[in-house]
Amino acid sequence: MALLSRPKVIAVDLDGVLAGQASPSGRPGALRPGALQFLQTLNHLGYYTVIFTANPTSNANEWLRANGLAGLVKEVVNTKPMAEAYIDDKAIRFTGDFAQTLSEIRATVSNTGLANPSYSMQGEK
After folding, report:
1. CATH tag, 9-87
2. pTM of the full predicted structure?
């Protein structure tokens, strides 16, 4: 019995990647230059493309249709899907070093007044 091969899943964030940042109402921003070609290339390469968003999937589906992208994606979800790779404008890659990850968080996240910048993890360099 042959094993069924599963397509490689690429999860792409909508807001900040394909579209500009969402409005407070959860509507995606404008189509970013190159987004159409990017999705076309993923499809051409045979990837199973999933769009993920923290906003309502109905808003995402409407935006994809309005921008002619709906036929280029397989699913739209508002949870983190299982995938081989995640394309996200707010991601910090974890490489096994928690101290380095904290350093990257500090360098990436704006000071909202909620974080204590002087606090360090025990043993952090």
Report:
1. 3.40.50.1000
2. 0.80
